[in-house]
Amino acid sequence: MAAQPVFRGTAPALVTPFTRDGKVDEPALRRLIDRQLEGGVDALVVLGTTGENATIWPQERRRIVELTLEHVNGRVPVIVGTGNNSTSESLVFSREAAQAGADGLLIVGPYYNKPPQEGFRAHVAAIAEAVDTPLILYNVPGRTGFNMTAETVLRLAEEIPTVVGIKEASGNLAQITDILAHRPPRLAVYAGDDEITLPLLALGADGVISVVANALPERFTALVRAGLAGDFAQARKLHFELLSAMRACFFATNPIPIKAVLHAMGLIEDVVRLPLVPLDETTRRRVLEAFETFLATA
Fold it and tell me: Which of 102, 105, 134, 157 sits 20 to 30 Å CA-CA off 76?
């Protein structure tokens, strides 16, 4: 039986907070989760790109998943990033997250390997064979060097019942439109870039996996809900109000800017893991200026 989409609406791609000595900051992670739930988000994503999954150790992964599921306690779906460029390692991560009780798994396109489309199809099929948990594909060629084509996405959605969504961060509107135009009813399409959320909602997308929602959950969920309800005048108003903040999240490699904002809000330490480094002071000022109105009312 085909699985149903994991959520409709807004899911923050949650940052992973670290202490000053570089360990996972569990109290800060709980604070961030509480802030998102109070802000009305529809799901949570942990261990995605914004969560610095590439530099999280396996034992840390298990603890982050365990803590998040325990703290959320079923209030919203929890989606765990378990894909990487090694199919065998992705299988291990996926089985662990599924056994822990994750509601969905986020499967990024394999990076560095640059597989052919058929290789990616086999990669997803292997994960789907190993777990029954719903899968959300994650296309972000700017980070991976690999683009999953619309044809591949649609084929996977037809062939594998547990493929129930895609986070599309290619920036290729024609490609995303092709997916929306030809998808089976159970395949949810989520914006993978905050700034294209409104255009994709107008085309019938189901929501967003968001960076800026880490800092502004109430405002961004309001935009998405307006768009899903067909109130595009209100959604457009909110889009323009948030535009500078959405763009500032990418003044440097994500999640460096959003972590600086969350630090300014008193929620986390401003710590990223090498090879990422904190913002230089000039860029920090630019980022915080883009959030100035929101920080003043936080």
Answer: 157
